[in-house]
Design a protein that fits this description.
Layout: E1 3-7, H1 12-23, E2 27-32, H2 39-42, E3 51-55, E4 68-71, H3 78-83, H4 85-106, E5 109-115, H5 142-162, E6 166-171, E7 174-175, H6 186-195, E8 200-203, E9 209-211, E10 213-214, H7 215-227, E11 236-238, E12 243-245, H8 246-257, E13 263-266, H9 281-287, H10 295-312
Parallel strand pairs: 1-2, 1-4, 2-3, 4-5, 5-6, 6-11, 7-10, 8-13
Antiparallel strand pairs: 9-12
Amino acid sequence: MKRILITGGAGFIGSHLCERLLAEGNDIICLDNFFTGSKDNIRHLIGNDHFELVRHDVTKEYFAEVDEIYNLACPASPPHYQYNAIKTIKTSILGMINMLGLAKRCKATILQASTSEVYGDPNVHPQTEEYWGNVNPIGIRSCYDEGKRCAETLMMDYHRQNGVDTRIIRIFNTYGPNMDQNDGRVVSNFIVQALQNKDITIYGDGSQTRSFCYVSDLVEGMVRMMNNKQGFIGPVNLGNPSERTILDFAKLIIELTNSNSKIIHMPLPKDDPTQRKPDITLAKKELNWEPTVDIKDGLLKTIEYFEKKIKENK
């Protein structure tokens, strides 16, 4: 049994990670300030003797004795991370410093949930881990993009200078149950709009591409990265290399929900990437990992989740 700290543990991905690691027989400390996380995501875990929920903001120091740290704390959708841009970049940088300090003191292994956004609007396609990215450092998305890039720098410097056992993953678009229906991300937006027969909003002409990875596949990759004993510290892309246009994705959602929604187009936000697809060669080689959940199967589970949430909120 390991004692594992998960920051952002009540969030979309964090809650699934809590479930997985708890089921494996570990003691879990779930740390969250509930800015974007929700108690509903982990309510069924409260009462388990091996699960501890702590309301805490990672920009403040936290002390505990732990074996592993998964650092997921940071709002991940543009409406949320742009709501308070300064707080977002503080979460990425001060939160990273605090968690690395804890890892150093406890001699714990720490995994940072970085993002495909470190590649910005990429000039290389698909994106490999060697690509340094094309990020606007003064744009409206840079509080998130540059915060995550700096967090990666801190991880590598603590590893080189202090010998901290660090692991970096770069997460590409992930979807599944426990997503916030108001988080402004493409999957939740499209599904909620379709289920309510509202117009589906596409920004730009819809030719921009994304690749969507189901949450259980991502969690499997995260756990494999943490448990890797070969000294492989990353960064490593975790995502689904199956690429599709946003317009095609909207049509698929309409089909799977049997919706009467129409597709409408809005102006493309500044610095929105036109292409996004991971090269997962490294993950296959080092972690023996690749996604296994078919897009339709994953979407049907996600649609079922949102149908339930919409009924609950009526």
